[in-house]
Amino acid sequence: MTRYFEVQQRDGAARIGKFLLKEDIRTPYILDTRSLGNPESPIIDGGSLWKYSGFEEAQEHLREIRQKAGEDALIILPHQDLTPEAPRNVTIKLAEKAEGMEDSGATGAIYIAGQQVKEHDLYVMEGAGCFENNARTFLSVLLEMKKDIAPDTAIYAPNIAIPENLAMLIYLGIDVFDNTKAIIAGHNDIYLTTAGQFYLDSLAELPCRCSACSSTDLTSLRGMDKKSRAVILEKHNINAMEAEAALVRERIRAGTLREYIEGQCRVHTWLTALMRLTDSEYDFVESQNAIARNNTLVATCGESQNRAEIVRFAKRIQERYTPPESDILLLLPCSARKPYSTSNSHWKFINALGKSRKFVHEVIITSPLGIVPRELELTYPAAHYDTTVTGYWDAEEREWVASCLEDYLTKHKYTSIVAHVEDAYRVICEMVAEKLGIDIIYTSLGNVSSPESLKNLSKTVSELCTGRKRSHEQTQKDLMKAVADYQFGKGSGDILVPQGSTVKGPFPKHQIFVGKKQLITLIPQYGTLAITIEGAKALLGKGRYTVKIDDFVPRGSLLAPGVVDADPLIRPNDEVIICGEKAIAVGRANMNGDEMKRSIRGVAVDLRHVKKIE
Amino acid sequence: MTRYFEVQQRDGAARIGKFLLKEDIRTPYILDTRSLGNPESPIIDGGSLWKYSGFEEAQEHLREIRQKAGEDALIILPHQDLTPEAPRNVTIKLAEKAEGMEDSGATGAIYIAGQQVKEHDLYVMEGAGCFENNARTFLSVLLEMKKDIAPDTAIYAPNIAIPENLAMLIYLGIDVFDNTKAIIAGHNDIYLTTAGQFYLDSLAELPCRCSACSSTDLTSLRGMDKKSRAVILEKHNINAMEAEAALVRERIRAGTLREYIEGQCRVHTWLTALMRLTDSEYDFVESQNAIARNNTLVATCGESQNRAEIVRFAKRIQERYTPPESDILLLLPCSARKPYSTSNSHWKFINALGKSRKFVHEVIITSPLGIVPRELELTYPAAHYDTTVTGYWDAEEREWVASCLEDYLTKHKYTSIVAHVEDAYRVICEMVAEKLGIDIIYTSLGNVSSPESLKNLSKTVSELCTGRKRSHEQTQKDLMKAVADYQFGKGSGDILVPQGSTVKGPFPKHQIFVGKKQLITLIPQYGTLAITIEGAKALLGKGRYTVKIDDFVPRGSLLAPGVVDADPLIRPNDEVIICGEKAIAVGRANMNGDEMKRSIRGVAVDLRHVKKIE
Amino acid sequence: MSLNKAVLDIRNRQRVKPSPIDVPAATWTGKDVIESGEIDTITIIFKTSGCWWGKAGGCTMCGYVYDSAQDVPSDDDLMAQLEKAMRKASDFDRFMVKIFTSGSFLDTKEIPIEVRHRILEELDGDERIVKVLAETRPEFVTEENVKDCVSVLKNTDFEVAMGLETSSDVIRKQSINKGFTFQSFVDAAIAARENGATVKSYLMLKPLFLSEKEALEDIVQTVRDAAEYTDTFSINLCNVQRGTYVEYLWDRKQYRPPWLWSIVDILQRTKKEFPDMIITSDPVGAGSKRGPHNCRECSHAVADAIRLFSLTQDLSCFEHLSCGCKDLWEQVLELEDHTFGSPILD
Amino acid sequence: MSLNKAVLDIRNRQRVKPSPIDVPAATWTGKDVIESGEIDTITIIFKTSGCWWGKAGGCTMCGYVYDSAQDVPSDDDLMAQLEKAMRKASDFDRFMVKIFTSGSFLDTKEIPIEVRHRILEELDGDERIVKVLAETRPEFVTEENVKDCVSVLKNTDFEVAMGLETSSDVIRKQSINKGFTFQSFVDAAIAARENGATVKSYLMLKPLFLSEKEALEDIVQTVRDAAEYTDTFSINLCNVQRGTYVEYLWDRKQYRPPWLWSIVDILQRTKKEFPDMIITSDPVGAGSKRGPHNCRECSHAVADAIRLFSLTQDLSCFEHLSCGCKDLWEQVLELEDHTFGSPILD
């Protein structure tokens, strides 16, 4: 029973949570290892079973601690730890012995892969300290752990955190750490920073302005006896870690932890490896990533292109997107300003197309997103990314973008393909054209925005304009359909933008009506759809993005315990349909579908409209 | 006359320096902008010429400041600043007017591209604050400046530094900054950190433990009146910048600033762009990079492969290296342990080769270094790099390594090429073999270290062994020759390891003797050669890596003013030959050749042997 | 490249839309203060062939050059402009007319002498009009020209308005590119006053390249230098006009318009020093990014106080102004003196 | 996988070089303390067919199993080993012989009973020898076996040495994999003492998985538990021997040998509690990474003090020991109790 821990905010796998104990504790949290032995603390180590000859003795010891501590202290049940390479079934046997302990109140337990998992409030990653520098093992143990335990259980990785790795460990979804390594480093004359560690000997000055470092200087520090020096170093090391923890919490709140990690992971090869290996666990990462966010996705490194948001965007275009009916494809370069159509350059392209625009389907080529059909240019992260631009695209970028374009051109056929591009964009078009054996007409003459190029574009396209053309309203509907398919899966567009529906509202605030009934609205901020109760009813048959609840009428927000079932495709911030015997509702998911089902605390959905079923 | 500034330590373009003023000031330095107006300060702004109707008035004003300040204060001569996009020749005209000022003592001046540069102690980058977010312009202005002014002059970039960009700006070789932006941010309720900036409003807690932040908390801070709050925020912002400056100074001392930058630049797209654009200025960057260092080169990101040290290593193999005479080439994968031949896997390969080893030439394939001939496996950075290993090589890595291998195989011909490799290594071999239309025999059977693979390697090579073979001593000499060529240029090996010379000392501490005269010794730590006076004499004819001095006998160290001429190929830490009418000497360069010639302060060469010419 | 060339290049890149030449560039009514106190005003911006200096490049902050006509307006066109403008004054009982041409009213290339006479005669004929102000560059304020105007305006006061901008020849030349010297202003002012006209001087707060404090002190100094030659000061706060060199730099984050706190400080200091002098300022565009501004919260209140002071000349208008951003402005005053060529932006 | 299986797997991966079977595995001389005070000793490690328990897997820290012979030594081989070993004692006047087999001396599968008799007879015949110590697992310390030895050693004291390691059956089983219980040790000790032998107990400081403090307290508790059954304690400090499970985990950074400060603390506390008991410890490999160690600076001095105490039983040996690292050790004592399965490494 996770009665004492609640996840409040999420940023990918990272989260802000709260322990509701004798003191409220906000996670990610660095506990003072020394306090673990004190029965007055909010979190207590029940101690080692190595010293008890019998189970009864240990149980008695636990009863004593609980009596002193009260119900609202979290006790990590007595445990008989082995190191990670100890024989697995010995470990499990010992863990089962520990799990036999009886206790009421808030509890933690050691997690052992393969063991029967109970509903503790916290699980300890056994031997976490041994995994430092071993990214592969650390990640596989953690993922196993995450798979087994309830998503609203806190995870504690002991004896591993230092300022430099803290952000990455939190990024992976760990909630609780301790200051063991910071203290030990302090007593070893090691000075920890988020940028790495220094032997005190090797320093010429103190690279910090924390309260401990401000209280002294390097010369005085060196002059002290070991013990007094250690007190200050320990304080500094803990300060450095606390400051980093606070920064990371702020980053989670701001939804920008990934951007931080992409820099911070360079402090150590194993942290970079952790990031790369985690990215390759796409299902894990993607399942935790919000479908849309209102902050900029900043791509500054090679690994940015492996972000779940980017890969997901590309995959959904491959799997969910259907282009509007058009015979001419026009490939365009991206622009710094987003959405692209508000940029100077795109404004020029559109002007140059003039009336021919009705005949063409526009697809934008961009790194790291790959390709963006015009209909999806508003949709997160297409209108929400910023990237370092130097004009040079590295081979990995070129291969990735080309693979997206190749997939698209393999699936979708056009009578003519025009590319109004230069430089790397053109290289990519040529790579793909050659591979697929197709012809692409290039219209740019050195500079896509030059009057000559624009004129050539205009001329070329107008000469090709003989096929199907689309009305203005159809173009608006195409946009809405594309977003619907992107968001709710293929075919959703036909349901939410049915034959005979009408479009209201200026770009980009389109709404779709069937008669007087509104079905959906485009939210320009995220480029996603909000759905009405009518829209929800229409979509209900598909069963997608649906949360099933019991026979009650929810209000304001739907809590996790009220969820009977939820579509595992639901991601945080997804628009979802809530249905139960007594009500149908729509709202914004606060967690993913799996988490809704498996959690017993926390807000599952923020409701927007609720309709009772009479 | 740079009498008041001295560069003491270098790490690439970044440097630790010292102003010898009324107070010693250590650079990189963040000056308090407010102090610039105070004539008691060690560094003073002579003020704006906008307010003077005549030159005389301004000159009089300067005389007054100098009188109050004394000779040992640095006065930035009165200046009439324009912003960067002001017409260039107006700017130059105004600058010339300012340069007309007369003054004794330490002086600074505004740098204007195209202006006649004098010997001030400091140059100010005019309008630096306008270049924020404009990496290309900032870099081009800075490089122009670096080209024009003496290398031992300090560079001051005003109104641009904040904690997040400081490391990068220092990395580029800027010495002096100010706290203008930190103060202004404080008075704008903006909280600066090295990880970016936050509006105070948006914070839930203070992500710092500096003395200012420890003195309060977020709630109290928000409750204060604007002015009191600004005092604390300003203090925090300055603390954050001071701490970062101290950290960066430590990084320069440790020689690991590049590794820090590779993470820190992800805070903002323009900083990443700065790093990438700087890397593409290979000549600038390479000329400042030490030839060898005793710390690990840690490669954690895509940009690591563009580091000058790595590109230079590849270039020297292309331009300076001549393989030993052998008919069989064996391509091997790299190993985590360095030098490769001490690793478990290479030990197995060598064992498997057995006696056949005399017939083969071994070349190791590795990322990000490209290729490493066995003879150069000790040479920096071949034995000094560490990299994130996940098994995946991205396309850019593969293209780079393949391009190195392709160049090698184009230049050097073998009867047979054997590759004992798997995975990405094999992909690379196949890419190159296909491109060049050559055959490569692959000997590994799934795992390079498996007994079957080793057996196959052994069998394959022994069947090919019919060509030229090399004796043990020849192999040792090949190593020494290769390092000599690498270090001193093609042909140096033939001079320093001449016909008839002998090798002494166990691997890797080889020495080359001609008769009883020693010429060179291999320094295992860097994998470079130290040269004796005899060796220097032998090499002197080539004129390479030579520093010309006047007719004196240097002792201990050679100072920059004593240098008459120096080979522009000389890099920091290079082994150099000093020659003058009175003496010949050898030593380790402390700066590059160009800097030796153009500096008037600082140690140019640490001497090891000096021999008087009678 | 010279500053003038830089300004001209930008001018040449502008595309100006053609507009009818028998309609004034702009007309509006307002209030001003003259010796006898507050008075209604009508301002007319004539569309002429344009400022001769502006056509050759002109001032770095001046966007009025685009108000000139594409084709040369005929005399009748100019009179039609006057007629259309004056309709707005139909409700006034007593008022003042302020004539601008985006150049010089006394330049006969812009306003042929016959037209000048026709205009002034018409105005003189309207008994409600107590005063006519005409803006001009000083090179046209000759004894002859002033006499000519005064002689036509028999029953009406005549005021010559000149854009002195600053008493610093360095700044006027190297920052503003104004093309005359302080001495030529002095000569013109004397010529005007000796021949029956009064003088109004326009000053410019914060031309390009100056720090906030330099700009502030320059205006205070200018008031001191020019006080004896002028009857009224009007201090313009530089705003970023389209098609100007100021805009070019502002776009590139190389210029910030002045703080409103600066003009408040100037008005307080100069009014105290010259209590009898009329010193006004119209904070055009105040509070916007392109105009003079403090923070979002106080800009409008401070601008209102400035306007009120300009009409009342009463320093108590400023008494209760305060805002958190004043502290920031004080920092800017101190720090922008040492930014070496980059402004402190918001 | 069971712990024993894990140990066995590692055993099976070792390659042992063949060595002559008529030469003892090792022999050395030293000093020890008996009731009458310090005495010279000779230690003989017989190369036998090996410890039966070790062959089935054995103890997690024991690397002695690799000292056994590849082929079974004949009786004459064993006697030849004795003969070669005893040469080292040729200079001694009075000494004690310590017999080890890397297994059990009383196991007749290792030392056939005839050989046992021949060895003991030969030692008994040497008048310089005052005491013979023989190490064995407790299952072989039967009334019959003790009597048998004592009856041969007519003029020589006989001491049975057993590796109790710890009085905790949990630790002995789940960390050390020793394969007997505390009760079997007690039974053996009683059997020995009731039949004319004295008992020496070897304890093991810091077996796998225990925190520094748990390990320390376990030894203190063990001394309390076993004091009434033993005449002498010798506390072994776990060191990382080749081919052991301990080494396997140490290699993977999952084990750290004990601190020397821990044994100093143990000796001080137990000696104070049992002043008449002989309590010794030989810090084998002290100061090396694989052995018990403090910091580089003090390890050797502290080890020397431990050795001196072991001979003198005088607690003042420890009086002047101090080092900066003691503070670190204190932290380790406190913190390693809460690392949940990872050691605190150096």
Automatic annotation (TrEMBL), chains A, B:
Xref: CDD domains: PUA_archaeosine_TGT (cd21149)
Keywords, sorted A to Z: tRNA processing
Any one GO MF annotation of this record: RNA binding
Coiled coil: none
InterPro entries assigned to the protein according to its UniProt record, in alphabetical order: Archaeosine_synthase_1, ArchSynthase1/Queuine_TRR, DUF5591, PUA, PUA-like_sf, PUA_sf, TGT-like_sf, TGT_C2
Residue ranges occupied by any PUA domain in the UniProt entry: 545-612
Record-linked PANTHER family: ARCHAEOSINE SYNTHASE (PTHR46499:SF2), QUEUINE TRNA-RIBOSYLTRANSFERASE (PTHR46499)
Identification of the protein by name: tRNA-archaeosine synthase
From TrEMBL, chains C, D:
Keyword annotations of the record: 4Fe-4S, Iron, Iron-sulfur, Metal-binding, S-adenosyl-L-methionine
Entry GO terms, CC: cytoplasm
GO MF: 4 iron, 4 sulfur cluster binding; catalytic activity; metal ion binding
InterPro entries: ELP3, Elp3/MiaA/NifB-like_rSAM, RaSEA, rSAM, rSAM_sf
Signal peptide: none
Cofactor: [4Fe-4S] cluster
Protein name from the UniProt record: TIGR01210 family radical SAM protein
Keyword Iron: yes
PANTHER family for the chain: ELONGATOR COMPLEX PROTEIN 3 (PTHR11135:SF0), HISTONE ACETYLTRANSFERASE-RELATED (PTHR11135)
